[in-house]
Amino acid sequence: MKIRQVKVINENERLAIVVDNDGLPIDRINFFIMEELRGFADSTVTLRVGMIIHIETWAKDRNIFLEQEMAGTCLSQDGLFTSLIAHLHKKSQNKPNNVVPIKPEQVSTDYFNQRVELCEVYFEYLNNKYLSRSRLDSLELKNNKIFFDKLIKKLKKRIIGGKHNSNVKGLTTLQQASLFRGLKETGFFKWTERTQLRNRLIILMLYETGIRRGELLSLTIKNCHTKVEKPYISIRQNIAHSDSRQNIPQLKTEERIIPISLRLSQLIDDFKVFRSQNKEAKKQPPFLFLTSQEPYRPLSYSSFNDIFLTIKATIPKIIKLSPHVLRHTRFENLDRYMVAKNYSAELKTKIKNNLGGWSRNSKTSENYEKSATEEQVYSVIKGLHDDIDGENY
Fold first, then answer.
1. Segment 189-220, tens digit of pLDDT
2. Is 352 buried (19+), middle (13-18) or exposed (0-12) by CB count in 10 A?
3. 274: which residues sit within 8 A by CB, 6+ positions away?
4. Domain 173-327 has CATH 3.40.50.2300
5. Of 150, 112, 144, whose CA–CA distance to 126 is shortest?
6. What are phi and psi of 257, to 5 degrees?
7. Which residue has the higher pLDDT, 39 or 220?
8. Domain segments of the chain: what residues?
C-alpha cells in the first residue's frame, strides 16, 4: 500500500488516498479518509493515512480483514490485541527481501498515542458500517457490542499519560540582530536584488506577525492592506484563486486581521513594484510570493524552506531557524513587552489569541513563550534570593 495525492475537482485541495502495488485505489480505506479525515490540514491527513497503512499492514501480515474483525469478536482472540499494541509502538519498516530488524525502532510517546487514538476512530468507523446493515434485535449485534466496547476500553487504557511539551524556543536577542543585519546587507546571502527583497519581506513578515508558513504562502496581494491609516494583513482561506502547487498551503488557525508596522507596509509596497514589472509574474495567481525564476509560479514549500537553509548555512550563530521558530520569537517578544507594560492577564490572553488565530480562551500561547517565561522566573527567583540575603539568613 502506498499514499498518493489527488486533486479534488473544483477545489483548492489535494487529498491523500491509498493505492495498492498496482496503483489502484483501495476504496475501503479511501472512503474512511474522505468521510473522517477530510477537512484537516493536508500534512495532518497524510500523517494519519500513513498510520492507517501501518495498522492495515499489521492486519495483512496476520491474514486479518479488519472490517470483518470489527463485525465479529474485535481482536478478542488470544494475543491479537497485544500484538497490535506492540506494532503501534514500532516505527514503520520497509522490509526488503523480508528482512526484519532484530530490534525495531520505537516511535515517540506522542506518536504512539496518536496511533492508538486513530485506531479508535478507524475501528469505530468499521464497526458502524457493520451496525448500519444489521438488525437491531440480532444476537450477533449484541455480542459484537460487548466485544467492541471492551476493545475501545482497552485502547483507551493504553494511552500513555503525561503531556509532551515542545522545547522549541525563539531566537535570542543576539540572533535576531545577526539575522536582520544579514538581511539588510546586499550580497550577504548571495541572492539577487529581487530575491533579497522577497526573502527579507518573508522573514520580516513571519517575525512581525507570527503567521504560519501556509498562511504566508497563501497570502494574496489583495489581502495586504498597505494604503490605509493603520496597515494590516488579512489571513483568510483561499477559495477564490486556483492553486497549482503540489502541496497547497492551507490555514490551520482562525481567519483574522493582523496589524503591521509602517516599515513592513513599505516593504510590501516595494516588493509589489518588483512583482508587477514582469509580464510572466502578472499572469500568475495573485499570491504575494512567487519563485525567482520564470515562469514565476507561486512559491512552493520546498523553495520556501531553502531560504531558511541558506540563512542557517551563512550565519553560524543561528543553528535553528524556521517559520515555527520565528512564531515563537514573535510571541516571546510580545510577552516581554506586555509584562514590562503591566498588561492584565486577561488582556494578554485576548491579544495573543487574536494574533495567533486561536480560540478566545485558549492557552496555546503559553507554548510559544518559553524563553520569556524562563527569564521572568529567573528574575522573580533572583529578587527573592536578594531579599533573603538582605535579611541575613
1. 999 888 999 999 999 999 999 999 889 999 99
2. buried
3. 194, 197, 198
4. no
5. 144
6. -115, 130
7. 220
8. 2-157, 173-327, 330-352+360-390
